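Title: Prediction job returns without error message
Component: structure pipeline
Severity: low
Priority: P3
Assignee: unassigned

Description:
Job completed but the reporter wants confirmation the result is attached to the right record. Sequence as submitted:
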Amino acid sequence: MTANLIHKIALSLIPGIGSVTAKSLIAYTGSAEQVFREKETALRQIPGVGSILAKNIVNSAVMTRAGREVEFLLKNDVNALFYLDEDYPQRLLGCSDAPIILYVKGEPFLNCAKVISIVGTRHATEYGKKLVDQFVASIAERGYKIVIVSGLAYGIDIHSHKSALRTGLPTVAVMGHGLETVYPSLHTAIAKEMIENKGGLVSDFLSNSTIERTNFLRRNRIIAGLSDATIVVESAKKGGALVTADIANSYNRDVFAFPGKVGDIYSEGCHFLIKSNRAVLIESVADLEYVMNWSATQSQPDAIQPHLFYDFTADEKLIVDLLRTEGEMTIDLVCIKTTLPMSKVSPTLLNLEFAGIVKGLPGKVFRAI
């Protein structure tokens, strides 16, 4: 298990390889470990790899760093969720730039039936804080099984976490650095309380990563991707909250924004989102329920069912039906049974794997989830 994890982490460290290429490599070779065993000539044949990346893989010296990271995880009780693991957030599987590995401190239920993110300015006003308190309290009163996500930053973020803790809701912070520390350090106690109350911290950064401003913009994609809806409380014309809202829109997730007073600097961003149809105006939980078609009186499932309304192509349906009937199958056998060429089967399985409908196993074996 440890050796396998080292290869998974190592794959994420190879220069020039992002999450999309990493997933493609695994889909074609069968596992992260097998990627490092393939010859350069074979790697060059994989779509999206080419000669430069193939050389980077064969000549990479990332195993030592990956080994140190595994030691850190074991010593500090941090989990590493690989994108093919059952506990990996299913909502992230629909995001093309989602990390192949997500590091988690605590035991948050990232596949909870409902997940929302609340974001906003670091310079929260009393008006903004009051909105957060009232909104989160209303959610808790309705008895939803829900997780509140934010970024642990000053302002609206930290107030959202505090409001969730106060009302007994689990809350998760997405960090812009490794999980060996908490930034800002002033929020360390809150982070600990979150972990102790069925929430936690998540990050796609290695331990001891340099803390830079761009990290926090990068982490915003995870805040948006983990959530069914992103709610912007207060924001200026420019800021991280608007970036998160734009990313959420690109993922085809719902975005909401609270209005403020005309002329207030930290209402301008929310008003822009509303005027440009990038966000729905929200004044209460009732607005969220209406748009999201939520009802507190309905039975609450324990986990999301992300594939219930997946729109299958003819080839995808053929392959999924086969795997559900036959169980685990090699990619070659899938080609034989479906009479589809490898050039169609490989990318189709890759798309299904991205959507969390099939799972790739070592040895180019696949099964339906």
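Comment from assignee: result matches the submitted record. The first strand starts at residue 78 and ends at 82.
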